[in-house]
Each structure stands twice: as C-alpha cells, then as structure tokens.
Write a structure and sequence with these properties.
The complex is a heterodimer. Chain A is an alpha/beta fold. Chain A has five helices and five strands; from the N terminus they run βαβαβαβαβα. Chain A has helices at about 15-25, 40-45, 60-75, 90-100, 110-130; strands spanning about 1-5, 30, 50-55, 80-85, 105. In chain A, α1 (about 15-25) links the parallel β1 (about 1-5) and β2. The longest helix of chain A is centred in the last third of the chain and has 18 residues, at about 110-130. Chain B is an alpha/beta fold. Helices cover about 45% and strands about 5% of the residues of chain B. Chain B contains 20 helices and twelve strands. Chain B has helices at about 35-40, 70-85, 95-100, 120-130, 145-160, 175-180, 190-205, 220-225, 230-245, 255, 270-290, 320-335, 355-370, 385-405, 410-415, 420-435, 465-480, 480-495, 505-510, 515-525, and strands at about 10-15, 20, 60, 65, 90, 140, 170, 210, 215, 260-265, 305, 340. Chain B has a five-stranded parallel β-sheet. In chain B, strands 4-5-6-7-8 form a five-stranded parallel β-sheet. In chain B, strands 1-2 form a two-stranded antiparallel sheet. Chain B is globular and about 85 Å long. The chains are: A alpha/beta, B alpha/beta. Chains A and B meet through α1 and α3 of A and α3 and α16 of B.
C-alpha cells in the first residue's frame, strides 16, 4: 500500500506512525514523503501496483485533495483501489469524503489496530471476489 | 484497600529513560557543587535562570501564535491581541507563504490564508502591521526556508514607518534543520539553506543588532516524537551547526551568540520538563563558553520561548486542553522561560479561534498576577529531586549529542535521514504505549466517555482569500516597476551563485515589490530542491 502526504502540509508524524504500524503488521508499505501532487501519488500507486492508498492531511484542505485523488484514480482506470484518509478531519466532513468515494476516514485518535483490521478485512473480501 | 508495607512501589521511568525513586534526600545531591553546578541566577552556569531577578523585574513576554486569511484580517487580530494585554506578536503564515509560493500558484489553491496569513509581496506585510508601532513591540515571524525574504520585508516595513533598523526587535524562526526532521516546510537542499541562515546572521549582527536571526526549535522535534532529552540534544546540535557556519565566515562567537534564541516544547511529566530546562541552560552555557570560547556572559545564556506542547493535547474531551494549557504555562514559568506562547485548547483541531486565543492569554495573566510565579527566582531550585534530575538529564543530553557527533554532526545526520528515522520510530513507540494505556492520557485511554466527537467552536476558513490575493497580485504586477523587479532579481541570482551575502539584494527585490514566489524561484533555480530521504 501507499501512504501519501499530498500538498503543502508538513505534519508527517501520523503518516509515518501508521506506515510503521502497517509494516509491523506484515504489509508492504511505501511512504511517498512530503509535498506530493495528486498526479504523483496516482503514478506511485500505479507503478507500485498498490491495493490501498492512504492520504494523510492535517492542514484542513482534505476535501479537495481527496476528491482529486478519487477522480484521478478513476481516470486511470483504478477505481477499485481502496482509498483511506487520515488526519484532523472534522466529523461533518467524513460523510462528504465517503460520498466522494473514500472508503474510510480515520480521524486523529483512531486506534492503529482499527486501521490494520479494516485493511485486512477489505483485502480478504477483495480476494474472495477474485 | 490496605496497603502491604512490604510491597514494592510501582517502578517509575520517565520518557527520557531515567528511573525515579519514591524519595530523595541530601545524599542524592551531595556531589553537586553549588558553584559549579547550580550558582546564582544570572551567573554562569545559569542553571537557575539567565537574569538575576527574572520575573521579579519583568514577567515573561506573552506571545500567542496568530495570523490567518488576509493581511487585513490578521492586522485586526494583532491589534485586538495587543489591546487584550499581549506584549509581543507571533506571526502565523499560511502554507504557500511558508513554502515560498504566491497565492495564485496552483499548488496554493486550497491553502491560501488557511493556517496563517497569506503574504505575496511587501504590500501584504505593510497592511499586516498598519497602525502597529513596530519599534514598541517585538515580533516573531514563524517562517523558515524563506525567512530571509520575510526579514527583508519586515525591515522595509520598519523603514516605511520611519523606524531605523537598530530599533527593530524580533525573531525569524529560520531553523531549517528542524524542518527536515519535523514540521516539513523545506524547499532547498541542506547546504544552501544553511548558507542563507549564515547570510542573515552576518547581516543582522552588523545592521539589525536587536534582532534574533534564528530560533532553534527543539519544539517541533519533540512534537515529531523525540523524548525530552532528544529534544534538547538535537536542538543543541542544530545550534552548533549554525554556529560553525557563522564562525566559518570569520565572525567571533561573541558577535552573535547573544542573539541565538531557542523554542522548546512542554508536555508530559512536570518535573522532567523543569529539569530539562535547568539542565539545558547549564549545558548550553558550558558549550558556548568552553567549546566556542565565548567571553561575554550573554553569549552563554539559553534564551527561550516555551509554553506550547500541542502534542500533549487531545481531540477527545477538548475542554480538558484548557487545563493542560494552564499546567504547561505553570511548568513554563517554573522553568524560567523568557517568552511564553500557549497552545490553545482547539489546537488539536485547527488554528486558534478568538475565544481560544483569549483563554490562553488570560491563563498566562492569571498565573503571572494571581499565583505568585513572579515572586522569587527558580523556586524549585535546591529541591533534592529537581537538582538530582537536572544532573541526570544533563548527562543524558550529552550522551545523545555524542551520538549525533559520531554520525558526523547534525548536517550529515539530517541529510542522510538518521535523525528523521530515529524520531519517527520514537513516535511510533510512544503511540503504541498510548494506545496500550502504558502512557496514561485522560479521555484517550482513561476516563473515556462514550460521546460523539465534540464539535467545538472553530476558527472559520475564508475560502475567498485565494481570489482576493490573486486579484491583488494582478493589479500590483501591472502597477509596479517591472524592469526594476527584473534587475533586482538578477542581482539576487548573481549573489546566490557566488558567496556574496544575499540580504542587500533581497531588500532591493522586496522594495521593488517582487513577489515571494518570484524571489523563491530565483533561489530554487540556483540552489535546487531538497530530496527527502523517505526510508522508514
């Protein structure tokens, strides 16, 4: 999976902590580093053939960035990828993000085990479909 | 429940890895010589404080972080804060400004005016300080890779107010090494970034003597996961890297060390924080005196801003953060800080609302005026526990500094990503301990309430800033002397390509209303961009 920091926001602790936790859980994780454009993130997801893309956003610009990612993936024929968004996301925005096509929002305070559990469950379901 | 007297009390180990005994006594401090280790406030080694009378003579400076939207909106907030009794300003810039982009840059669209105010040209900064006599306040500009541009703008604003540069007081944060470790607003590679800091120190030491050209931030390193002793050790190694850059230009340590400022974090164990600052003051004095040969006592003093600690605040039960903020302020005062900036209770959500900013300011005022914190210097000094812990913390800080030096110093350690890796692993360990309950966090892993996430009153975002700034830029570009702008930018480029100090050229470009984005682009063309070592 790819953990990505889109845009100008430099808060990367959350992204790195989640990446380390997923790695510890046995998943293959690529962290993009800071200041990535959505185009770059889509490209990385394609090149790495990632199943899951996690965006980490703390600046407040999560709505437009997440929408761009979901649309970007669709344009590249990657609509089946699992998209997760983490950061300081107000509750009222969770629904909007899900309407955009984000699979799950993990706001500040989420348990690492919940993220790991969600990905495992979804991946299990995906594999059964195949 | 009756306690069994034979039962061993639970083991206590601080975040810094020091085990704490249930009781301390004279035997724990008998090898600490008063003259060598403690001394009087205002005297070497400054363990007890950098001034003889500390707050008895003058309380700490109160400087809440603020700025949002347009310069005009920010100007109103600044004036309101000063009316409420705040004694200095601490300026928040939006992310495009912090990253050297103009508001009309496509990358800036959703960010203009969001986490701070948008600055594109001198015009904006003029508006931000309209009717604020900047010779009577000191201003901290929270800006890093493009600090040289903002310093130039601020100095020209002073000129236009009829204030000479020798009266200008303030600080540019300008600590690029910590940006690579945490916080993340970096642009240029490490070496040219440090060269820009050197240019500013050299320029300020002769032209703007009351200005602090950089403030070394342990704060963000701690926020990124470092322990309290790592925070101090890394900050000192960063400061040493900047000192070496400036000494390499032929300046003497006493020409500039008295203008080095620090920014530290406060959250976690109260005693550990107090001891951290006392140990830090003692160690820094020793480093500047013994390693760099300073003669002037002022050069040896650790001058700092402290009070914040956003990492200690929680999204859950957000009003609890008001209480945490008050304790952080108490710790900060007990630690002898020069300036205090509290993190507001809504910091875990957003930048401070007006209400949150006011509560923070009143918290500091209550502490200063009602609680006796100004009465006597270093009231915890002489406590068996505090003196013992101060000494242990100092030893730990020295050990970590040695590890950095074994890696070849801070510049190399950051270029290669060693410190970033160490700090993020520490953050992961800490998060696991919080999630398992090993580190108690009220409302998070103890006394959790089944509640909807509280929707607190938040600072509103003005989505029109992008359009407003865009129009303003278009108008300005059609009205300014564009040939003059080009000439100034060419001068800047030539200086950047050689070893010439960029500051005079920066000032010229700013006066001609070159935009922040134009200036940054010139530097990017010459210096290139930092490649982040992203290995986990």
């Amino acid at each position: 999976m790819v953990i990505a920091k889109p845009g100008l926001d430099g808060h990367d602790v959350g992204a790195k902590v989640v990446a380390l936790a997923l790695k510890d859980a046995g998943m293959e994780v690529i962290y993009t580093g800071l200041h990535r454009t959505i185009e770059e993130i889509v490209k990385t997801a394609m090149e790495e053939d990632a199943d899951v893309i996690g965006l980490s956003i703390y600046s407040g610009a999560h709505l437009s960035l997440s929408k761009k990612l979901v649309d970007g993936l669709k344009d590249m024929g990657l609509a089946d990828k699992i998209v997760l968004v983490g950061g300081n996301i107000p509750q009222k925005d969770t629904k909007i993000l899900e309407e955009y096509g984000v699979d799950r929002v993990f706001p500040v305070g989420t348990k690492l085990d919940d993220i790991i559990g969600f990905i495992r469950k979804r991946m299990g379901a995906e594999n059964e479909k195949k | 429940m009756k306690r069994n007297n034979d039962e061993e009390p639970k083991k206590v180990v601080l975040e810094s890895g020091i085990e704490v005994k249930p009781v301390y006594g004279p035997e724990d401090t008998e090898d600490l010589s008063f003259e060598e280790k403690i001394g009087h406030p205002g005297e070497y080694p400054f363990t007890r404080g950098i001034h003889p009378l500390m707050y008895r003579k003058r309380p700490w400076t109160m400087r809440q972080y603020s700025g949002f939207g347009t310069a005009k909106e920010t100007n109103e907030r600044f004036k309101w804060l000063l009316e409420q009794g705040q004694t200095a300003l601490n300026v928040a810039f939006d992310l495009p400004t912090q990253m050297g982009l103009d508001s009309d840059d496509p990358f800036a669209e959703q960010e203009a005016g969001r986490v701070g105010m948008a600055i594109d040209t001198l015009k904006d900064l003029e508006e931000a300080f309209e009717d604020i006599p900047i010779d009577r306040i000191s201003t901290a500009l929270t800006i890093n890779p493009v600090a040289s541009v903002l310093l130039a703008m601020y100095l020209v604003v002073a000129e236009k107010q009829g204030i000479t540069w020798d009266q200008v007081r303030g600080t540019t944060q300008n600590d690029i090494l910590k940006e690579y470790i945490g916080r993340g607003t970096w642009i240029f590679p490490v070496k040219p970034s440090i060269r820009l800091i050197g240019d500013m120190v050299e320029f300020c030491s002769s032209k703007v003597p009351k200005f602090n050209p950089f403030s070394v931030c342990g704060y963000h390193i701690r926020e990124s996961g470092a322990t309290p002793v790592q925070e101090m050790a890394y900050a000192f190694e960063i400061a040493i890297a900047y000192i070496q850059e400036v000494l390499g230009r032929g300046l003497k340590i006493d020409n500039f060390a008295g203008r080095i400022a620090f920014n530290f974090d406060i959250h976690g164990n109260l005693w550990e924080q107090v001891a951290k600052f006392r140990a830090g003051r003692r160690l820094w004095a020793k480093i500047v005196k013994e390693r760099f040969g300073a003669q002037n006592p002022r050069s040896m003093t650790l001058r700092m801003i402290a009070g914040g600690g956003g990492g200690g605040l929680t999204v859950q039960q957000p009003e609890n953060n008001i209480v945490r903020g008050a304790y952080y302020a108490l710790i900060s005062a007990l630690s002898g800080t020069q300036t205090m900036a509290l993190c507001s209770y809504d910091e875990a959500y957003t930048i401070p609302s007006k209400k949150a900013a006011l509560i923070s300011l009143r918290t500091m005022q209550i502490l200063a005026d009602e609680m006796g914190l100004k009465d006597t210097v270093d009231p915890l000094g002489g406590s068996y526990y505090i003196e013992w812990l101060t000494d242990r913390m100092e030893k730990k800080i020295v050990e970590i500094m040695q590890k950095v030096e074994d890696l070849g110093g801070m510049v190399k350690a950051v270029q290669e990503g060693h410190i970033q890796r160490e700090v993020s692993h520490q953050a992961y360990l800490k998060e696991k301990k919080i999630q398992s309950g090993e580190i108690p966090k009220i409302g998070v892993n103890r006394y959790v309430m089944a509640e909807e996430r509280a929707e607190i009153e938040m600072h509103p975002f003005n989505p029109n800033v992008f359009d407003e700034q865009k129009k303003k830029l278009e108008r300005l570009k059609s009205e300014r002397d564009n040939a003059g702008v080009e000439a100034a930018l060419l001068g800047l480029k030539q200086a950047a390509q050689t070893a010439e100090n960029v500051m005079p050229h920066m000032l010229e470009a700013v006066r001609k209303y070159a935009t922040l984005g134009e200036i940054t682009k010139v530097l990017k063309d010459v210096f290139g961009e930092f490649k982040e070592p992203v290995g986990l």
